[in-house]
Predict the 3D structure of the following.
Amino acid sequence: MLLAKSCQKRFHVKNGTIKLGTLHEYRIIENEELIDKHEGMLTFYLNFRGRVRIQTQWFNTINGNGISFGGPPPILFPGRTRTHFEKLHVEQNFGPWMVLLESRGVVSREAPNGFIFCMSRVERKENCVGIFKGCDDYWYVTEEKVHDFARQLVYLLRCYLMEQHAKGNYILPPETDMSDPMVHCEYGEVNYISREIDLYGEDFMSLEEYMGKMRDMAFTKPESYSKEREYRFSFVVIVGGKLVEPIVNSVFLDSTSLMELVF
């Protein structure tokens, strides 16, 4: 498998720079094919059809600041989360389990803002062509080089953040202590999931799986974007044990050191 980057010739990585955008930038980008006004943020609807048995902990999680029925505390997700029931009928409550009848829960999730780099997972070089309109060139990384590629991007981004901060060109808030920032990178395929899920009977395993996919919103998009076959690199900056969000929409890094990894 290959990780391909569709681009315009003038933005090819071998021209000397590589751009990392932010989740926020992808909400305002002008390219109609690339724009996602809800990048990193989605609202999901959980439809409990008929009588559905769920764990009390999941109920407390979906119920947000509503009435708690004891049991384990609500599950906390990274980023911002708002939850509630639009419609709720509790038929039974017995310790770690509850039975809901014809209910509907709403979960709104937003990932912390950070830098991302998006590619497409393809089988052959020929598949790199035509993924996005307006792109007349491409480059790619082999799967065997993905870890090295990610590690080098982390190094480049960390150095750039520190250098620019010292010059007064702030990528992070000016008051940020940049003596020893950490750049954390996750990479993998994007999950394309429906914004609605129907649950029946004792279908709690589907709820577990669905809620698990909601956990990392930087890697979650609606099914309508599935043609992109996206493979994503997500970078967040940690300073003093706390996540620090960028105050710019994108950065351009020197790509010279990536040349031995790309084709």
In short: The two ends are 13 Å apart (CA to CA).
